[in-house]
Amino acid sequence: MDRLPEIISHIFNAPFVCAYVLIIYYSFYPNKLTVKALLGIIIFLYIIPWGPVLGYSFLRKIPPSRLSNKERIPFVIIGLISYVLGTLYFCLGTYGRLYNFLVSLLLMYAILSTFLIIGNIFSKPSVHVAGFVAPIILLSLYASWLFVALLIIVPFIGWSRIKLRIHTPSQLMLGFLIGFLSAVISYEVTIYIIL
Questions:
Q1: Distance CA 110, CA 195 (A)
Q2: Which of 88, 97, 150, 184 is 20 to 30 A off residue 1, Cα-Cα?
Q3: Region 146-164 average pLDDT
Q4: Which residues form the domain of 42?
Q5: Which of the 8 DSSP states describes residue 190?
């Protein structure tokens, strides 16, 4: 039972949640999983944004969630750049609509990163909560509203972050708000402006 908060935090960290959402989405729309989509996912959602933070954490021998606010900001900026580049990668060309979910997902992470940079100036918003809420809301908007039910997991994620003494309840609420707003703004921008 002592390890349960740590296990929950590992299972529901942002890169894993992104993978879960992509697997679910592409099980609904397998014809949209092209070589271009797979390359973009690997490069712009994993290698560029997560490689540097994992390398730094490995060298410092501390988990990424234990980085201070000041340490987190450069990595969030690297992620932001990656997500903007990924959005452009999928917007360019004649098959934009084929990649509307990926455009929304990358744009959502860019918006989320921007909110996290601002949030880290004043507080330490929960990346775990924001990184769970945002893709789940986006999946619900694109695939099925039934996926909103997955938000029932948020209290468990929040409990684990409090139990590990990483976040306060207000930081969890801020993470939830940032995640929700990022998904909704991204969806609206993608549907009505970009594509």
A1: 17
A2: 150
A3: 96
A4: 4-194
A5: I
User: Rounded distance, CA 166 to CA 162, Å?
Assistant: 6
pLDDT, tens digit, for every residue of 161-182?
Answer: 999 998 999 999 999 999 999 9
Instruction: Annotate 132-167 with DSSP letters as a single string.
Output: HHHHHHHHHHHT-GGGGGGGGGHHHHHHHHHHTTS-
Handedness of CA 119, 124, 127, 128 (dihedral sign): negative
Q: Which two tokens stand for residue 80?
A: 């932001």
Q: Which residues of 155-171 are buried (b: 16+ CB within 10 A; e: fewer)?
A: eebbebbbebebbeeeb
Neighbouring CB atoms inside 10 A of 29's CB total 12
Query: How many domains in the chain?
Result: 1
Q: Of 129, 84, 91, which is closest to residue 108 (Cα–Cα)?
A: 84
| AA identity, residue 145 | W
Query: What is this structure's pTM?
Result: 0.92
- Token pair belonging to 114: 């921007």
